[in-house]
Specification:
Elements (H helix, E strand, L loop, with lengths): L1 E9 L4 H16 L2 E3 L2 E3 L5 E9 L8 E3 L16 E2 L6 E12 L3 E10 L2 E10 L6 E9 L8 E9 H8 L13 E7 L2 E11 L5 E11 L4 H10 L1 H25 L5 H13 L2
Length: 275
């Protein structure tokens, strides 16, 4: 087994602002309605790029996309909704609402398929108005390939445990259990990723990311040798990936509005309806 670890310091996200923004988004969708396929916010403005293609709005099984749904035309289940230049793979997409209970759980599932890859991504948010946990699942395969072309992943972020870890004194040891855990499985190998935050003295966050990789079945010895030979480039790529994620986090925080109450709700509505 190979183990890689890297720690970065990032700016803190205000918990109260985050939960207020999440609640505003949920309330805007809860108060939305469907009209001729368009999804209208409570003020009557349509959400940009989102249309109801099948089913009833905010009911389990509702299918959403960007174009009216007609058999054999863009927007129909399994029909192409996007394609590149001649010879480029045709991509088919669909987003299905599996559960809408704003006080308990919101769950959506996205399906994407092209000639050489089919991917299903599931996202479940528990207690959406003050998010408690985020769960993500990923399953993919090559429709023309065998088991070597299949992969899957699962991740869970316990948001209450995340905030609790940041409420500890900066001198305290890191939380015993990582609030964020992800696992990926392939026939040849499996990996485990953990993310653990702790407060810094200046109010920022120190985030430790740990990646463990090991081979499976009879390929364990082969994978072990390969990881030894490639350890340095793999470790360098891992560190660069974590550093890049930290930079993207900083850019995202810089773009977030420092608003509250109705002003924040209005800003979110503007973002949802902007082209």
């Amino acid at each position: 087994m190979a183990r890689f670890e890297h720690t970065v310091t990032v700016a803190a996200l205000d918990r109260h602002w985050f939960e207020e923004a999440a609640g505003a988004v949920v309330d805007l969708f809860e108060g939305s309605r469907e009209q001729d396929g368009a999804i209208l916010l409570p003020d009557g403005r349509p959400i940009h790029g989102l249309r109801l293609l099948k089913g009833r709005h905010l009911q389990p099984g509702a299918r959403y996309g960007e174009a009216p749904e007609e058999d054999g035309k863009p927007g129909a289940p399994g029909a192409p909704v996007a394609s590149g230049p001649a010879g480029a793979p045709v991509v088919r997409e669909a987003t299905v609402l599996r559960e809408w209970r704003p006080s308990r759980t919101v769950e959506v599932e996205s399906l994407m398929a092209e000639e050489s890859l089919s991917v299903r991504v599931g996202v479940r948010l528990r207690e959406p108005r003050t998010p408690r946990a985020l769960e993500v699942s990923l399953d993919g395969h090559n429709p023309k390939g065998g088991s070597l072309y299949r992969f899957s992943g699962r991740a869970r972020a316990d948001l209450h445990a995340w905030w609790a870890a940041l409420d500890r004194p900066s001198s305290a040891p890191p939380a015993a259990r990582a609030p964020v855990v992800g696992r990926a499985v392939h026939r040849l190998a499996k990996a485990r990723l953990t993310v653990t935050p702790r407060p810094a003295d200046d109010g920022s966050w120190q985030v430790s990311v740990v990646l463990s990789v090991r081979g499976r079945w009879l390929l364990r010895p082969v994978a072990a040798v390969a990881l030894v030979l490639a350890r340095k480039p793999v470790e360098r790529g891992f560190r660069e990936g974590v550093d890049s994620a930290a930079e993207e986090w900083a850019e995202m925080l810089a773009e977030l509005p420092s608003l509250h109450g109705e002003a924040l709700r209005a800003q979110i509505a503007d973002e949802l309806t902007a082209p």
